[in-house]
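Practice problem: predict the structure.
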Amino acid sequence: MLLISCPNCGSRDETEFHYGGQAHVPYPENPNELNDKEWAHFLFYRENTKGIFAERWLHSTGCRQWFNMLRDTVTYDIKAVYPMGTPRPDAAGTPTAETGTASLAADSTTTGTAAPSISGTSIAPADPAPSTTAPKGATK
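Answer:
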């Protein structure tokens, strides 16, 4: 059983929390302009990292607030817990610059007013060239 440290309530048992998926996935700026393939990539395609992974969590039976966590998916060690909208820290817990950012869209999981551009996201182009190499982090 994990002991998760909520940034608002302190350490609590993992049964009080709900996993919310990969952190730092920006909402598309103009979702109505996405074709079906681009929309599917936004909704369903996520990294499947072995090792340190940024995740979203909800303290569902406590403060009911969302937060981000860096967790090792192999050992389950929690490396850092940090509020929504802040940059992802490195494995030691120090904030670092990263290529993706948390969504700034005004919704239940963030506190912003404008949605970011999807130009630097992992949403694939309409007709991507087939790849012959395994994705980063894949194992044999």
